[in-house]
Every structure is written in structure tokens, then in C-alpha cells.
Amino acid sequence: MSRYAQNTDVTVGRSRDEIEKTLARYGASQFVYGWDQQQALIGFVANDRQIKMMLTLPDKQDRAFTQTPGGRYMREPADALKAWEKACRQSWRALALVVKAKLEAVESGIATFEDEFLAYTVLPGGQTVAQLVAPHIAESYLGGSVAPFLAALGDGS
After folding, report:
1. Are 111 and 44 in contact (CB under 8 A)?
2. Per-residue pLDDT tens for 73-124?
3. Rounded Cα distance, 99 and 12, in Å
């Protein structure tokens, strides 16, 4: 299966700018971004909530970039960098798509803002809801204390 925008020529900067413009168009009052070697962050304020979305960046040392597709030969450094940049462009295009889709779902009444952005909502301690809750969810599933999915259909809620 192919990845969304795997061959895009849209730069990371253009995707980031598109995200910022999309957020402004849908009513966000603040926007911030940053990055380090492992991840990028976008943050914004909308609907009286602070939202933080992290994007894991490809590892420049990954064999997918340092070796040829067959894995038999090492790529030249310039070619490895081009392959890595291509992966970064794809990731940022996917993030732009996700942000736009979530905001449009809210605007269209398909979902609420909380439905779409709950996991990314920043809590007073600086953690997102997902960072706080995800370990507990995993623990519940490991312990077998989650009701079967289809059983929920029969209770009328």
C-alpha cells in the first residue's frame, strides 16, 4: 500500500504554513511550532483549549535512507539526505491532512472539537490527555477488563 503524499514535492515549510493558515481559517487564536532531531511540534489555541500535536521525524540514520532500496549498497550522503527529506515532506503533508480533516469534521458537525482533539489537549501540568491516559488504557487491555466491543451495541448508549 502506498503512503499518502509519498512523492510530494511540497516542502516542509509550505506544509507548516498551510497548517497555520488552516488553523487561522478555522478560528485558532495562537500557533507555535518547533522541532529537534527526533520530532516536530505544532501547538495552537482554539475553542479555549491548548492543543499540542507531536510529529515523529524520520531518523536520518535509518537504513531506509542510508542504503539503496535493495539494501546492498550505501547511498552517497547527498542521496541519503534527499531520501530523508522526502520522508519528512510526506510526514508533514500527512499532518496537514489530519489537521484539516479534524477541523472540517468539527465545522461540518460530524464531531465536536473535544472528539477530534481530546488526545492532544494540554492539561495544567503540561501533559496531553493522551500522555496521561494512554498507559491506563494499555493496562486495562492487558488485564482483560475491557468489555467486548460488540456488547456495547446492545445497551442502547
Report:
1. no
2. 999 999 999 999 999 999 999 999 999 999 999 999 999 999 999 999 999 9
3. 15
- Measured CA to CA in angstroms, residue 96 lies from 11, 30, 72, 114, 123 at distances of 12, 17, 35, 19, 24
Listed in sequence order, the DSSP H helices in 1-157 are 12-25, 63-66, 77-107, 113-117, 129-143
The one-letter amino acid at 144: G
**Per-position b or e across 54-66, b if 16+ CB within 10 A of its CB:** bbebbeeeeeebb
Beta pairing partners, 121? 51
Angle between helices 77-107 and 12-25 in degrees, nearest 10: 10
Question: In this predicted model, what pLDDT tens digit does every residue of 117-157 receive, in sequence order?
Answer: 999 999 999 999 999 999 988 888 888 777 777 665 665 55
Strand partners, 56: 39
Cell of 28: 485558532
pTM over 0.85: yes
